[in-house]
Amino acid sequence: SPITYHHDIPWKLNVMTENSARTGNQTFFTAFLYCNWESENEEWQVDYNAEFVIVNRGEE
Asked: MATH domain spans which residues (predicted)?
Protein backbone atom coordinates (compact mmCIF):
# COMPACT_ATOMS: atom_id res chain seq x y z
CA SER A 1 0.00 0.00 0.00
CA PRO A 2 1.07 3.62 -0.23
CA ILE A 3 2.82 5.00 2.83
CA THR A 4 0.44 6.80 5.21
CA TYR A 5 1.52 9.01 8.10
CA HIS A 6 -0.26 8.90 11.47
CA HIS A 7 1.18 10.93 14.34
CA ASP A 8 4.18 11.70 12.07
CA ILE A 9 5.06 7.99 11.82
CA PRO A 10 5.07 6.19 8.44
CA TRP A 11 2.75 3.17 8.13
CA LYS A 12 2.43 0.65 5.31
CA LEU A 13 0.14 -2.36 4.79
CA ASN A 14 1.36 -5.46 2.97
CA VAL A 15 -1.04 -8.28 2.08
CA MET A 16 -0.39 -11.53 0.27
CA THR A 17 -1.67 -15.04 -0.28
CA GLU A 18 0.37 -18.22 -0.19
CA ASN A 19 -0.46 -21.69 -1.42
CA SER A 20 2.54 -24.02 -1.26
CA ALA A 21 3.86 -27.26 0.17
CA ARG A 22 4.83 -25.25 3.25
CA THR A 23 1.15 -24.44 3.90
CA GLY A 24 -0.05 -27.98 3.11
CA ASN A 25 -1.29 -26.73 -0.28
CA GLN A 26 -3.94 -24.63 1.44
CA THR A 27 -4.34 -20.96 0.58
CA PHE A 28 -3.61 -18.54 3.38
CA PHE A 29 -4.16 -14.77 3.41
CA THR A 30 -1.61 -12.76 5.41
CA ALA A 31 -1.60 -9.07 6.37
CA PHE A 32 1.38 -7.20 7.80
CA LEU A 33 1.26 -3.67 9.18
CA TYR A 34 4.68 -1.99 9.17
CA CYS A 35 5.50 1.20 11.02
CA ASN A 36 8.70 3.25 10.96
CA TRP A 37 10.55 0.35 9.28
CA GLU A 38 13.49 2.54 8.19
CA SER A 39 14.39 3.71 11.71
CA GLU A 40 17.89 2.75 12.85
CA ASN A 41 17.14 3.64 16.48
CA GLU A 42 17.20 0.35 18.41
CA GLU A 43 15.43 1.94 21.40
CA TRP A 44 12.44 3.09 19.34
CA GLN A 45 9.14 1.39 20.12
CA VAL A 46 5.44 1.85 19.55
CA ASP A 47 2.35 0.38 21.19
CA TYR A 48 -0.50 0.32 18.68
CA ASN A 49 -3.61 -1.77 18.07
CA ALA A 50 -4.99 -2.32 14.58
CA GLU A 51 -8.16 -4.03 13.44
CA PHE A 52 -8.40 -5.59 10.00
CA VAL A 53 -11.82 -6.14 8.46
CA ILE A 54 -12.20 -8.35 5.41
CA VAL A 55 -15.18 -7.50 3.23
CA ASN A 56 -16.39 -10.02 0.65
CA ARG A 57 -17.46 -8.07 -2.41
CA GLY A 58 -18.34 -11.18 -4.39
CA GLU A 59 -16.87 -11.98 -7.76
CA GLU A 60 -16.07 -8.89 -9.76
From this structure: 2-57
Measuring CA to CA, which residue among 3, 58, 60 is closest to residue 36? 3
Q: Report yes or no: 14 and 31 within 8 Å, Cβ to Cβ.
A: yes
The whole-angstrom separation of Cα 19 and Cα 24 is 8
Q: How far is CA 36 from the centre of its chain?
A: 13
State which residues form the domain around 33.
Answer: 1-60
Q: Distance between CA atoms of 30 and 58, rounded to whole angstroms?
A: 19
- pTM of full prediction above 0.70: no
**Tally of domains within the chain:** 1
What is the pLDDT tens value at each position of the chain, 60 positions in all?
899 998 888 999 999 999 999 999 999 999 988 888 888 888 888 888 889 888 888 876
